[in-house]
# Entry
Amino acid sequence: LKVAILGAGLSGLACAITLEKNGIEPAVFEHRSRVGDRFINGEAMLSLLNRPVQDSIAFLSEQHGIYLKPTAHIRRLSIHSANEQAVIEGRIGFSNLRGRDEDSFEAQLGRQLRTPIRFHSTHTYEELVQEYTHVIVATGDGKDARRLHNYTEDLSVTLRGATVEGEFDPYSVTTWLDYDMIPKGYGYIIPFSSHEASVAIAMPDLPDGNTRDTDSIWDAFFRRVCKDLGQELKVTDQFEVSGYSIGCCADSRIGNSFFVGNNFGSVMPFLGFGQFSSLLTGIYAAYDLCGKGSYEELTAPLRRSYSNSLVLRRSMESLSNEQLDRIVKAMNGYIGQKLFNTKTIDVLKHCSYLLRPYVMLQK
Ligand SMILES: Cc1cc2nc3c(=O)[nH]c(=O)nc-3n(C[C@H](O)[C@H](O)[C@H](O)COP(=O)(O)OP(=O)(O)OC[C@H]3O[C@@H](n4cnc5c(N)ncnc54)[C@H](O)[C@@H]3O)c2cc1C
# Structure
């Protein structure tokens, strides 16, 4: 086998490490100058969204030999709507760093790989397909799968964020759901440590290329975060990602090309979480190449999660701020605790089954 991996991010590196463990040395092509050569931000993996897996970090190491150290395990999640607040405690998930930090997930994966990565690559998919027996498309952008006519975009999102200094509990994350402030989207704060955190908003783009006043939205959100946390946060870095594509590939494998990570459809439309699924698609593509399973079959549950998650996104977009208040109020107590802490409740699956007829009626 002569395997090329295009992109040394989460899915590409997870694939490369798994191939190496099974005696296949892939050629890894990365167009940037090093692994994780982009802004630093805090991300999270929520156990609620990865059912039946409760502990994603333990699962990756025990089941798949992929070792990742998160920044912290999350024990407390606060959800603010316009007028309500819910606090949920338990095994919520993990926070982690991405980008240029030496502890970022991609940097940790890069250190687990023996094969040298070919940086500053200008190779295209079309060139690699000619030269290699198998190509793993791991460029982290559904637009690449779309260019190859193998992807449907369901929404695109603008993300804006900042690194801030203040006082934080690293085991606690907070999120804001207030459509008057962030239309159809949400905001969050994920601490990196007790004195540094990522603050960000994510919101769906308007149809037909219409734009929102992101500056005003960001300013209002940032004021709200400072007010709710009772601190004046100091911004030390900022980023903005626009047109971030969320969609799913039609075929996870075409010939000997495998679509992994965001090119597969790893980002779940509901809240934009994609790390866990990205890692799994990379691992599963490697299993297929090693004769340990079929990529299409292994990824089938991830495809179902994507479709369930899309139902939740569409339902969520149709809610009013009053309805968000009611949901957040209901989450504050037994229901919230139960949803987040019961491994057997597949929230994506059950909620989407309940909401599917409602979404169909809206069409
Ligand atoms: C701001 C932001 C916040 C997010 N927050 C969360 C979160 O909290 N939780 C969560 O689970 N998910 C989150 N996500 C989604 C998650 O980061 C992605 O799903 C995941 O990183 C996708 O992994 P990947 O392997 O597909 O791509 P990436 O990890 O992005 O890797 C792609 C790699 O390919 C390289 N590349 C691109 N084009 C080429 C090319 N032509 N040739 C060679 N190399 C190329 C890139 O430089 C990069 O190194 C967030 C995403 C963003 C943008």
